[in-house]
């Protein structure tokens, strides 16, 4: 109980000092859409960020580590078969196979990642073990699966009847055209600043529906789908992974924050870069990308190319806040 009281006290103190922390002295800075800097704070992509944040928050108030909190948080959408863009029940590739990508990163720049992982419901937990128990950052495909099984993960069928039916219907036309803001969710990306202002991040997805077999998106790629620098801030992406990889999106958002950009200005700049690169290209008609970012003060933002991206916030005064991101076009 004492631990919990201290935790809440720190949150409130964080918000008292907030106004003086906003506005970096850089001409590129913009005021965030949040006007207080508070920590601990959790920010996650899309509607499914709300239950994910709630779970991560529960872990924080129990005194668990930031890394355990984000892992637990994103496991909620991973296990939910109604969410067709993450984990169990995710849309399969064009061969009818569900393949998952995930990564996780901590305050010491330790990171772990799995890509093209099949038959394991919680790729984020495998990514965490890659980080903690191997000399590597990334395991892929069969190697990632063998590693997971060696650590006691159960092999399961991840293709639900609903996703299988959709895949059978899709095959009638076989037209690969990613859907913008797929059912109001996509990758779950989560960023967390704890009560010591240490940063943690996670990102997990089943990737683009009907992708080519073997396709890997931005989500397991450190620097693209997720990046953090514990001195500066953290950023994560959602949307068309190829576009995010082309710009090293999340790493660039963090680098701009290092230069003094606010989270909002940094996300906006990278979305504009992506827009410029793709404007007259073949993916423009279905291109959506969005970023979330949080800086060392707990100031946050979300920004996307097109309307419809939202993100969830959880802190001591908001447990279920869902915000519409600003957007470019
Ligand atoms: N952002 C998820 C993907 O493109 O796979």
Care to describe what's here?
By secondary structure, the protein is of the alpha+beta class. The protein has a single domain (22-327), classed as (Glycosyl)asparaginase (Glutamine Phosphoribosylpyrophosphate, subunit 1, domain 1). Helices cover 33% and strands 21% of the residues. It has nine helices and 13 strands. It has helices spanning 2-16, 49-61, 66-79, 123-133, 141-150, 161-173, 241-246, 249-258, 263-278; strands spanning 41-45, 100-105, 111-117, 138-140, 188-193, 199-205, 226-229, 233-239, 289-295, 300-304, 310-315, 321-324, 326-327. The strands form two sheets. The chain has an eight-stranded mixed β-sheet. A five-stranded mixed β-sheet has the order 7-8-9-10-13. Helix 4 links the parallel strand 3 and strand 4 (138-140). The radius of gyration is 19 Å and the shape is globular. The N and C termini lie far apart (48 Å). The model is unreliable at 1-33 (pLDDT under 50). Bound molecules: glycine.
Sequence of secondary-structure elements: HEHHEEHEHHEEEEHHHEEEEE
Specify the structural class.
Answer: alpha+beta
Ligand identities? glycine
Radius of gyration based on Cα positions = 19 Å
Give the biggest sheet: 8 strands, mixed
Number of strands: 13
The geometry reads as globular
Mean pLDDT: 89
Number of domains: 1
Strand content: 15-25%
Low-confidence regions? 1-33
- What's the total helix number? 9
CATH H-level superfamily title: (Glycosyl)asparaginase
